[in-house]
Amino acid sequence: MADRGASALSLPDDWPAHPDPILALNRMGSFDWDLDTGLFHMDARAHEIFDLRPGEYDGHPESLAVRVPSAESHRLDALVAQALKDGSENYGTYFRVRRRDGTLCWTHTQGYIRRDETGRPRRIIGIVRDATQELRENRARTDQALQDEALRRQTDIVQSTTAALAHARTVKDVIEVLRDSHGLTPLGAAGLVVGLLEAGRIRLVVEGPREGILPRTAVTRVDEPYPMSEVVRTLSPRFIESPEEFAERYPILWPRLADLHLTSAAYLPLIVQARPIGVMGLLYDDRRGFTPEERNVLLALGSSIAQSLQRAMFYEQEKDLAEGLQQAMLPRSIPSVPGADVAVRYRAGGAGRSLGRDIGGDWYDLVPLPGGRVGAVIGDVQGHDTHAAAVMGQLRIVLRAYAAEGHTPATVMARASVFLRELETERFATCLYAEADLSTGVVQLVRAGHIDPLVRLSDGSCRSLPVEGGLPLGLSAEFDRLEYPVTTHEMEAGQTLLLYTDGLVEQPGADLDEGMQTLRELIDTGPDDVHDLADRLIEVAGERNGDDDVALLLLQRRGLAQRTGGRLQQHVALGDPEALVGARRMIRAAVRAWGAGERSDEIELVADELITNVLMHTEGSAIVTLRVLTGHDRRIRVEVEDSSSALPRRREAGESGVSGRGLLLVDRLADVWGVEARGGGKVVWCEFMIRARV
Residue 691's closest CA among 620, 561, 591, 612? Predict the structure, then answer.
């Protein structure tokens, strides 16, 4: 028979065509369909595939209806008709065959269309084969691929959640990760609950995405008949695969969940070092059951969450301990200072710090001193750990003690430096100490490697206050060689002295000058009240989320309760008669200029007696200071300072004695008098009430 088709497939000369032996080897049958006669010839293997016995098939396609369901037959007819119509050379498809026992099995056919020179289809030669096993394997591969893909997605979720949990520092951070849309919701859970074990009770710490997912179970006992309690008791997961199982196993809880339409749930123990710390529950409303792979993934996720929660709880415990230690080292309260408004603030750094380093050595202190004076301290011990805080606490105490003993500011700083050196901590500290006389406004400042303070003027403007500096504390143990120059500044009423640590001005990515400029601008535009200003400064420091601690002390001189109308001071050296004469002249001129009136002679006599006592009994020099104080009354204050720590003693002079009457004279003439320790020496002072000028 001549080839009438346009296909590359050659047409055999005889009909029907004989199958190639290769087809039989591949368990394929063949057919030859003459489109002119309609005869559909099949070989023996094709008869087996259609489950036809000899004599049951007459060669017409319609006779196959007994084996091909009508729906499949219509689909095959439509497929062949379309291929013949559109000029296709071949077609192929899968269809089902009903075998003799009534079961359906899959078959695959491939037909090759032969056409004549005009393109008219004349013949179809093709193959058929049993595809049941092939499709079963394909389906298994597809199902496996889907399972693998689902497992891969879940594994990716576990990995991404674990990566996010690695950055969680607190329990709140862990909860935020679990609540995040990139956390557990891709697992398909409709609800999530996490409870932590606390003293035999389970306290829910996360509940979502629905609010109130478990009514009246915010806190439950471990012995209650709930799945979370059971998981904690047994340390084993609970996978609930149907609503019926949920209702059967937990009849008390299930009625509370009925409105949520849950279909399954997975409760996972959160175990660290063989000890339960809590439990996590995933609730589903669109699935039943869990494959072994899914269970393993969820268990791995629970392990990761348990580690993160344990790390977060350790961090919070250590943070609480560190903050408690820090607060214990700082003053519990700041004393009220007449004539001044004081505000102190402390902010712990820690953004980016590792566990155990959320405590620092920054501190402040305010020390009331005799004579209306006050000592203000700001400092920073090197390091951010409990050791730094412990050193800070010791250093704060000794600085306070040295200041309260009456030492000069330079001596206070030098002794504190020697003390720190003798601790052998290998730590140093920066510090600034300011001693302010609020009655006169005179401030004496010493600086040990610390940042210069700032002064806010009464008009609100701010400027830096340069203070000569010495070595940071702890860098030298030789007291005699330590030099801390004293800088004197006079504060007017309404001015504010600002002492702070470098955490207030250091900004990530910016140099110190930029930070200082920013701070000055904040103070320039800040509120007038020192407490509001302190709040504003510490708030801005918190917004920067810096790594360093911040300590801040603001001292504003009110100058209302007690104001000075004058202040004079003179040094009288031993063996210098001219200095003594000059001091007497100064006293006489001052008391008359200040309107002492009839008490002028008394003031001169007492001052002269005190100076003479120093020169005679201490074998050292004297510093005499006169002040006029105004307030509810008007007073003249006389102070005589010497370098001897021996206190004056009141003695009764004999009839022929020429000494012993000094303190009796002071006691009789002065309205009030006293003795104050001052560094290595003392100050004897007295005050005289005088009438206001008319």
Answer: 591
Average pLDDT (489-503) is 89
**What pLDDT does 44 receive?**
87
- Nearest of 516, 556, 517, 549 to residue 534 by alpha carbon: 556
- CB atoms < 10 A from the CB of 494, how many? 16
Are 638 and 686 contacting, i.e. CB atoms less than 8 angstroms apart? yes
Strand ranges in 14-85 using DSSP code E only, listed in sequence order: 28-34, 40-42
Please classify residue 173 by burial: count the beta carbons closer than 10 Å to its beta carbon, then call 0-12 exposed, 13-18 middle and 19+ buried. Answer: middle
* C-alpha to C-alpha distance for 107 and 50, rounded to whole angstroms: 9
Phi-psi region of 43 (alpha: psi -120 to 50; beta: other; left: phi over 0): beta
**Hey, which residues does 105 pair with through a beta bridge?**
97
Task: From 352, 329, 337, select the one nearest 551 (Cα to Cα).
Answer: 329
Residue with tokens 């609970």: 238
- Asked whether the beta carbons of 92 and 111 are under 8 A apart, the reply is yes
195 strand-pairing partners: 204, 279
74 burial level (CB within 10 Å; 0-12, 13-18, 19+): exposed
DSSP code string of 300-331: HHHHHHHHHHHHHHHHHHHHHHHHHHHHHHS-
Q: What is the pTM of this model?
A: 0.53
Q: How far apart are the first and last CA of the chain?
A: 150
Beta strands 275-284 and 191-198 are: antiparallel
Cβ neighbours of residue 633 under 8 Å, at least 6 residues apart? 689
Report the C-alpha dihedral over residues 390, 391, 393, 397, rounded to 10 degrees: 150
- Assign 3-class secondary structure to 445-475: EEEEECCCCEEECCCCCEEECCCCEECCECC
Between CA 498 and CA 554 the distance in angstroms is: 5
Name the nearest CA neighbour of 150 among 282, 290, 266. 290
Give which of 393, 383, 401 is closest to 328, Cα–Cα.
393
pLDDT in tens, 247-260: 899 888 888 777 77
How much is the pLDDT for 547?
67
> What's the rounded Cα separation, in Å, for the pair 138 and 150?
18
Q: How far apart are CA 365 and CA 192, in angstroms?
A: 49
Residues with Cβ within 8 Å of residue 152, at least 6 apart in sequence: none
Mean pLDDT of the chain: 81
Q: State the pLDDT at residue 34.
A: 92
Residues 448, 449, 455: CA angle, nearest 5 degrees: 85
Quote the strand ranges of 85-146, DSSP E. Answer: 90-98, 104-115, 121-130
Q: Is 259 helix (H, G, I), strand (E, B) or coil?
A: helix
Q: What would the mean pLDDT of 565-570 be, rounded to a whole number?
A: 67
**How many CB atoms are located within 10 Å of the residue 533 CB?**
22
Contact 16, 37 (CB under 8 A): no
